[in-house]
Amino acid sequence: MEQQTEYVLAAEQERHLAERVKEAREYLGLSQEFVADQIGISRPAMSALETGKRKVSSIELHRLAQLLKKPLTYFFDDDEVLSAPQDDTARALYRASKGLSEQDQQQVLRFAEFLRQAGRAPSLTSTDQS
């Protein structure tokens, strides 16, 4: 019975890891073929890895973490804070900022923080006209 429980837990962890790999790859806009080539496996093997039908070796996981710019813990932690944004706007912002210099990225961050701190601008169509 205990061995069966361990197998179920391992299967859940493998599914979670597979989901995280796919999520991070898609977030960066990378194809399965590109990622597979970079880590040294075939595209069908990459597809199987992302669906949980293939286990990932520790070397492959290290290569994936480097390529996908994620700490190894990302693939194991179930913390939503570590998840890639699911929002289309957040993805677009990320992709738009990828081509910017470090200085420009910092400026974008400062502007985003300014907008967050400023809150909503007052409406220009106010009916209170004295």
TrEMBL record:
Occurrences of domain HTH cro/C1-type (ranges): 21-75
Taxonomy of the source species: Bacteria, Thermotogati, Deinococcota, Deinococci, Deinococcales
PROSITE patterns: HTH_CROC1
Listed Gene3D superfamilies: lambda repressor-like DNA-binding domains
Protein's recorded name: Transcriptional regulator with XRE-family HTH domain
Source organism of the structure: Deinococcus metalli
Example GO molecular function: DNA binding
Name of a matching Pfam family: HTH_3
